[in-house]
Amino acid sequence: MSKKYERMNHLIKIIKDSQGASAKELAAKFNVSEMTIRRDLNQLIKQGIIRNQYGAFFYNFETTKPLDHADDHYALGSAVTSFMEEKRRIGSFAATLIEENDILIIDTGSTTEYLAKALPSTLSATILCYNRNILNQLVDKTNISIIFAGGYYHANTEMFESMEGLSLIQHTRASKVFISAAGVHETLGVTCANNYEIATKQAIFKSGIEKILLIDSSKFSIIKSSYFANIEDFDTIITDCGISDTWIDLIHSLQIKLHIV
Fold first, then answer.
1. Which of 25, 85, 95, 184 has the fewest CB atoms within 10 Å, i.e. is most exposed?
2. CATH class label, 3-63
3. Where is the HTH deoR-type domain (predicted)?
C-alpha cells in the first residue's frame, strides 16, 4: 500500500474536518517538508478537491459536490437503482468466473449483490460475506457454505464490520475476492464512500489469490474520500461498455485482465 496515497487520503480528511489549514501546519502533522506537502496539495487542487485561499487550504465542497456530497448520505438503495442493467450484466459475468468448490469473499456493494444473485443454485462453494443483502441472496442456495463476518450494522450500505469480523477475514483464505468501489482515479487510486469500509476492504485483499474489481463505467475518473487500493493491486476488472478508450488503454498497460460486458 503506497504511503503517498495513504497520506493523501488522510490529508483530505484533515482539511475537510479542520475547515482549513496552512501548508506549514499540515507538514508538521505529517512530519514531512513543506515542499512535499505542497506537492500533495497542488495535486488535490488540480483535481478540484481542495482550494487555496490566502495561504490556507480548504475542502472544496462546491466543486466536489457531484462526487462527494453523497458520501455523507450514501445509501445502497439509491446505488442499486443507478446503472442497474450494467451492474446486473457485470454481476452475471462475474458469476461465470466461479468454479466448483471455489472459496470466495464477496465485498459489500450494489454490483456485488448482483453477483450473489446470479450464482446458480447448483454451485458448490464456500463464501465469506458481511453484507445483509448479499447474505439474503445466499441463504437459499443450499450447496453454498456461508461464512458471515458480523459486527456493527451500517444501514446506509447494509454492511457489518467489527474487529472480530476483521479477525475472521484475516484467518480466511480465498481463491477469488470480488471487490466493489465508489471511484477509480488514475493517480489517486481506488476509493470508497465510507471510512469504515477501508479496513475490511484492505483485509480481504490480503486474504485472496485473485482480486477482481466489479465496477460500472460511471465510477472511472471519480474520487471518493476513502482510499483503499491502487488500480494495479487488482488482477481483473469487470465493467460495462461505457468505459472510455483512455481507461481501456491504461488498464491494458498495467497488464490487468479487463472484461467489458
1. 85
2. mainly alpha
3. 4-59
Contact criterion met (CB below 8 Å) for 93 and 162: no
**Angle made by CA atoms 174, 171, 158, in degrees to the nearest 5:** 75
Cβ proximity of 189 and 152 under 8 Å: no
By C-alpha distance, which of 198, 237, 197, 234 is closest to 220? Answer: 237
CA dihedral in degrees (211, 237, 164, 127; nearest 10)?
A: -80
- pLDDT of res. 242: 93
C-alpha cell at 243: 468505459
CATH number for domain 71-260, candidates 3.20.20.20, 3.90.1150.10, 3.40.50.1360, 3.40.50.150: 3.40.50.1360
Whole-angstrom distance, CA of residue 227 vs CA of residue 248: 22
Per-residue cell: 89 = 450484466
The DSSP element (H or E) to which 172 belongs, if any, is none
Domain ranges of the chain: 3-63, 71-260
Place of cell 460500472: 216
* Amino acid at position 246, single letter: T
